[in-house]
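Ticket closed. Logging final result for DegV family protein.
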Amino acid sequence: MKTAVVTDSTAYIPKELRDKWNIHMVPLNVIFGNEAYREEVDISAEAFYQEVKEKGLPTTSQPPVGQFVELFEQLAKEYDAVISIHLSSGISGTIQGAVTAGTMVDGIRVYPFDSEISCMVQGFYAIEAAEMASKGADADTIMERLEELKQSARAYFMVDDLSHLQRGGRLSSAQAFIGSLLQVKPLLHFENKVIVPFEKIRTRKKAMKRIADLLGEDAATGASYWAVIIHANREAEAHEWKAELSAMYPNVEFLIGYFGAVIGTHLGEGAMGMGWMRK
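Final structure:
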């Protein structure tokens, strides 16, 4: 059995890694007024944050089912199966597009995988799946491995501006106003596929230290981990944090990731987070 790996743009896997592992990517969209952009195709993260400064926040949309159908039809010429790995079904209907398309394409079996998360932690699943597929693992074996990885996947993040969360219905107007006055940095995470507050912390510095401590609790087992520092247009700060954490946790392999256009729309510039997974 020959297995392809598909993910969506919110995994934010750098193009060189997608090319290396032959990972196929379906883009989500950001819409500024009447202009729609496919993230990671028509608009980069850097360009997105500049556009926001000039035009304000866009809206977002998931890929049309036809985009999945077209890709799966192409893959069916060469592959028997496709593992389609997507951002959490609790925050987007993207995975449902893959499920629907899978029923419409003959000659290939589609295995949808709900990462229950997003950004480069979702990317870790895709890279692991692609590496296994390249070594000849069948789709069922790969899916079992992804479920195993899910047991250790974690991600925590904070936002710089509470108004984005309030606009998206994550906080009430009163909570956002009071939180802004008090400089509260709500630490967020995924729980049951949706984004919920984990803790309320007073400063950015303390929030970052709390995330590092949570990683430390897992890293203390001595097991090897992948970790990714994820930033919204704060690359220098992310690199500083990576240097600090790499010295603290030698059993953790750190990458720098980013909140691209779609996730950045909902979190806002300045957001910072970290995700990790046991190797």
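The CA atoms of residues 165 and 171 lie 6 Å apart. No further action required.
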